[in-house]
Design brief:
Number of strands: 19
Low-confidence stretches: 248-255
Largest sheet: 8 strands, mixed
CATH superfamily of the largest domain: UvrC, RNAse H endonuclease domain
Shape: flat
Helix content: 40-55%
Distance between the termini: 93 Å
Radius of gyration: 35 Å
CATH class of the largest domain: Alpha Beta
Number of helices: 20
Mean pLDDT: 82
CATH topology of the largest domain: Nucleotidyltransferase, domain 5
Structural class: alpha+beta
Number of domains: 5
Length: 622
């Protein structure tokens, strides 16, 4: 940083220290006097100096903003709510570079009804001056297309390129006629009057929705039955069945919540995706997503995203569901209620069908982010779990590479450790490592964990130029155990100059994952279903790998015990024999000459081993 910039930072620090403790709005400006960020504060004196503190640990985006601040201004308000309202107004006015700004790239869509003798209903992106009737505009082109498709199927309207009456009876009906999705006017299967009636009913359906259409069709069907018009009643019955089938496909959640918007934010540490699912009349009508820079705080990001979203949308529903905490939720509810002219609530569903809707929104955000980042092959479910885990642990970096450790022994004997790696949320087995504890004898899980971490990251310092294997630094370290294990590891990493987040994986008394341990406490996992599933899988895999190695060592140790009782065979020769012959059974069946061929063996030692295993046979021969 240049000396001039340092002087500016010092001046800004002094200016910020003189701010009053009142609520208000602050405007960060660059050297051109352009507003680059607008924020609000309950206390300006407490909030603004944080940007210029030398000890502040800001995220990348805030750091970039602060580096470009040449001055700031502020406006006092009577309350924090007034500050929020003013903040929203100033953001709309200045479009600051470092605020979260959602750009509405959507055009408008229309439903077009032609006015010829055999009208057609189509979805169009532009309204033309062609004499046709138009319904709209609508903000979602996909919703318009889906609605037109539904109407065509229910009322058996043609969707081909044929023109009527020009193409009457020039060909046989297509497949749609035989699967009851077209009335085949091309083959003269429907009269012009009946066709127009179908068009009129379809328009009513598109204007009023399925509920009003169902009620009208039921009334007409009853009337037709009473008048003994059974053919017409049967046709109306088929329409009702078609509407029911369409509605079953669209029915994604309980009709108890008729209108709501659902927000989810997923970050990979560099970029983040906001997905919004919009429900109206109990049906999913629209899905939108926006890619933004990864935020420093998910709770703050949700507040900014919700505020920014309704700055470009006119319809505000009475209920907004989010996939996590929303900063200043009560203030935001009050502001949205004032804009909408009705009570608006923001909720974070924890269970049931609403929680599943939020989860669906989060998965959509994960998939969109993966497509944007070019990692579409990566599991969207895994990405969502990693995002949820990162948010829960307060980690802004992408958790692409996670290392987990567990210790295994039997009363301090055959003390070993296993290291497993999860890459992009799934096991990366070729990076697994095994450790034999060498620094001491006996049982001490804390010392064992400290030794393993010291050896592993000592190798990192030697091999970091390679960027592979031990030369790769993980994004997160998980150790099996509570804050005791975490506290045993942290000093080791600090002494090596390694800065990687460390957490413990805590089990309950039934050996099931219960929580995540920090150096000073625990974080419950129960409210984060995907993160819970991921951590459970990591803990289970780490335990399996460590225990598997321990049992292997224990088995070898047990097999070698009989060899070390032979005169002239110590632990070194016993291991050499097992390496050469693989099993004790093979050693037993070997001849003296074969035993001599093993590394480090002498003939007297070979004869001693042979005699040990064949002493019973020798006794019977004597």
């Amino acid at each position: 940083m240049s000396s001039a910039k340092q002087r500016t930072r010092a001046e800004l620090r002094r200016k910020a220290a003189r701010l009053p403790s009142s609520p208000g709005v602050y405007l960060m400006k660059n050297i051109k006097n352009e507003v680059i960020y607008v924020g609000k504060a309950k206390s300006l004196k407490n909030r603004v100096p944080q940007y210029f503190s030398s000890n502040a640990s800001h995220g990348v985006k805030v750091q970039r903003m602060v580096e470009n601040v040449d001055d700031f201004d502020y406006i006092l308000t009577d309350s924090e709510f007034e500050a929020l309202v003013l903040e929203c107004s100033l953001i709309k006015q200045h479009y600051p570079k470092y605020n979260i700004l959602l750009k509405d790239a959507k055009g408008y869509s229309y439903i077009r009804i032609s006015r010829d003798g055999w009208p057609r209903i189509t979805a169009e992106l532009q309204r033309q001056d062609d004499g046709a009737d138009y319904i709209g505009p609508f903000t979602s082109s996909s919703a318009v297309s889906n609605s037109v498709d539904e109407a065509a199927k229910i009322f058996r309207l043609p969707t081909c390129s044929k023109e009527f009456p020009r193409d009457f009876k020039k060909s046989r009906p297509c497949l749609n006629y035989f699967i009851s999705q077209c009335s085949a006017p091309c083959a003269g299967k429907i009269s012009e009057d009946d066709y127009r009636e179908s068009i009129d009913e379809a328009i009513k359906f598109l204007r009023g929705g399925s509920a009003a259409t169902v009620a009208e069709i039921q009334r007409q069907m009853s009337e037709a039955s009473e008048n003994l018009m059974f053919e017409k009643a049967a046709k109306l019955r088929d329409r009702l069945a078609a509407i029911k089938k369409i509605n079953e496909k669209q029915k994604v959640f309980s009709a108890s919540v008729r209108e709501q918007d659902v927000f989810a934010v997923v970050s990979d540490g560099k970029k983040a995706c906001l997905n919004v699912l919009r429900f109206f009349g109990g049906r999913l009508t629209e899905s939108e997503f926006f890619i933004i820079d990864a935020p420093d705080s998910q709770d703050e990001a949700r507040r900014e995203l919700i505020r920014s979203y309704y700055a470009i949308r006119t319809r505000i529903p009475p209920r907004i569901s989010a996939d996590g905490g929303v900063e200043d939720r009560k203030l935001l509810e009050e502001w949205l209620s004032g804009v909408a002219g009705k009570r608006v609530s923001i909720v974070v569903p924890q269970r049931g069908e609403q929680a599943r809707i939020v989860e669906m929104c989060r998965k959509n955000a994960s998939e969109k982010l993966l497509q944007y980042s070019g990692k579409a092959g990566k599991s969207g479910k895994a990405a969502a779990a990693l995002g949820e885990l990162a948010e829960m642990l307060g980690i802004s970096e992408n958790l692409e590479y996670i290392e987990a450790y567990d210790i295994s022994h039997t009363a301090g004997s055959n003390n070993v450790a296993g290291m497993v790696v999860f890459k992009d949320g799934v096991p990366f087995r070729r990076a697994y490592k095994r450790f034999s504890i060498k620094g001491f004898e006996g049982q001490d899980d804390y010392a064992s964990m400290a030794e393993v971490i010291e050896r592993r990251f000592g190798r990192y310092l030697e091999e970091k130029d390679t960027g592979e294997g031990f030369g790769k630094l993980p994004d997160l370290i998980l150790v099996d155990g509570g804050h005791g294990q975490v506290n045993a590891v942290l000093p080791v990493l600090k002494s090596l100059g390694i800065k990687v987040p460390v957490f413990g994986m805590v089990k309950d008394n039934r050996h099931r994952t219960r929580a995540i341990a920090q150096s000073g406490g625990e974080i419950a996992l129960t409210s984060k279903r995907q993160a819970f599933t991921l951590v459970s899988a990591i803990q289970e895999e780490t335990h399996r790998f460590a225990v598997e190695y321990h049992r292997k060592r224990q088995k070898k140790s047990g097999l070698g015990t009989s060899l070390t009782t032979v005169k002239g065979i110590g632990e070194k020769r016993a291991k050499a024999l097992l390496r050469h012959f693989k099993t004790v059974a093979a050693v037993k069946n070997a001849s003296v000459d074969e035993l001599c061929s093993a590394p480090g063996m002498t003939r007297p030692a070979a004869e001693a081993v042979y005699d040990y295993f064949h002493k019973e046979e020798k006794t019977r021969a004597d």
